[in-house]
Amino acid sequence: MSEEPMNEITDEPAAAPAGPDAAIEEAPREQAPRQPGAYRSVQRQRDPEGLGAAPRDRQRRFKRRRKICAFCIEKARVIDHKEVPKLRRFITERGKIMPRRQTGTCARHQRMLATAIRRARECALLPYVAQ
Fold first, then answer.
1. Tens digit of pLDDT for each residue in 1-43?
2. Distance of CA 110 to the CA centre of its chain
3. pTM, rounded to two decimals
4. Whether 88 contacts 121, CB under 8 Å
5. Which residues does 5 contact at the CB level (< 8 Å), separation at least 6?
6. Are 90 and 113 in contact (CB under 8 A)?
7. Domains and their CATH numbers in the chain
8. Which residues lie closer than 8 Å to 7 by C-beta, 6 or more apart?
9. Spatial separation of the C-alpha atoms in residues 25 and 27, rounded to whole Å
10. Residue 79 contacts by C-beta under 8 Å, 6 or more apart in sequence?
């Protein structure tokens, strides 16, 4: 019997190394300590024209202002369903209720607004759908 290395788990001969350089095992590479910001990658967006992507910092020229709830400014406790001109600002041309992210209303007033719009629709003050 030859002196081949045996696999301890399956008791079969271990796989032979492929080629003369295969017997040399690679030592684990040591990584140099990272310096702050040395390897930071810049996030890039795809450019549809293919001219090369620009960093996100350059694409955003201005800081978006946070939308403020119009009803909180007025300190409104209730939203009346009979105030049709005020309610019309919060529905689309097709008659849908606009979402909070577009109007800037807070969660509490958005719920009250939706209820007022539904009541105005039921009273035939506002349309359910576009004409």
1. 556 666 666 666 666 656 665 556 666 667 666 666 555 555 5
2. 22
3. 0.52
4. no
5. 13, 14
6. yes
7. 75-122 (4.10.640.10)
8. 13, 14
9. 6
10. 71, 86, 87, 109, 112, 113, 115, 116
